[in-house]
């Protein structure tokens, strides 16, 4: 990168003051500062993008390592389960062929039939707090039609 010392910057400022003039120099300096700021932000964005891409590549490598480890574990577990299943089947066939075992069909009980649990809506309704029922306008007692009319009759009319 370019190496500017204090003496070089002072020389450039003096030349700019002579060439541009003192009236336009502040506006030009402001414009140059704005452009330098934009350039620095652009460079920072490019660096950030490069860093993100490098991190993404590292994450993809880690992901592939984890996937291979998971597949290895899955394969070893599957082999163990298969060997245990074969051993169990071999033992079961040995016991069944031996003839000393009782009738295994009678030991198995049929699965119980599914029954839908009955919901007691009265119990649920009774669990609601009284203040909530009053706020929601839930009727707590039954009223006859005449009692309801008498309840909501405007005062003064009897």
UniProtKB/TrEMBL annotation:
Key words of the record: Cell inner membrane, Cell membrane, Membrane, Protein transport, Translocation, Transmembrane, Transmembrane helix, Transport
UniProt topology in membrane: Single-pass membrane protein
Gene3D superfamilies linked to this entry: 1.20.5.3310
UniProt region (Disordered), positions on chain: 96-120
Localisation per UniProt entry: Cell membrane; Membrane
InterPro entries: TatA/B/E, TatB
Family: Belongs to the TatB family.
Entry function: Part of the twin-arginine translocation (Tat) system that transports large folded proteins containing a characteristic twin-arginine motif in their signal peptide across membranes. Together with TatC, TatB is part of a receptor directly interacting with Tat signal peptides. TatB may form an oligomeric binding site that transiently accommodates folded Tat precursor proteins before their translocation.
HAMAP family membership: TatB (MF_00237)
NCBIfam families, per database record: tatB
Oligomer and partners: The Tat system comprises two distinct complexes: a TatABC complex, containing multiple copies of TatA, TatB and TatC subunits, and a separate TatA complex, containing only TatA subunits. Substrates initially bind to the TatABC complex, which probably triggers association of the separate TatA complex to form the active translocon.
Protein name from the UniProt record: Sec-independent protein translocase protein TatB
């Amino acid at each position: 990168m370019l190496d500017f010392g204090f003496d070089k910057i002072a020389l450039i400022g003096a030349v700019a003051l002579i060439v541009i003039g003192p009236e336009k120099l502040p506006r030009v300096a402001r414009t140059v500062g704005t452009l330098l700021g934009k350039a620095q932000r652009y460079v920072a964005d490019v660096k950030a993008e490069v860093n993100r891409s490098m991190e993404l590549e590292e994450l993809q490598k880690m992901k592939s390592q984890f996937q291979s480890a998971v597949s290895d574990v899955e394969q070893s577990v599957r082999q163990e389960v298969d060997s245990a299943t074969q051993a169990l089947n071999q033992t079961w066939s040995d016991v069944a062929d031996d003839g000393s075992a009782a009738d295994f069909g009678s030991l198995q009980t049929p699965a119980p039939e599914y029954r839908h649990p009955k919901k007691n809506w009265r119990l649920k309704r009774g669990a609601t707090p009284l203040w909530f029922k009053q706020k929601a306008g839930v009727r707590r007692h039954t009223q006859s039609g005449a009692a309801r009319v008498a309840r909501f009759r405007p005062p003064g009319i009897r």
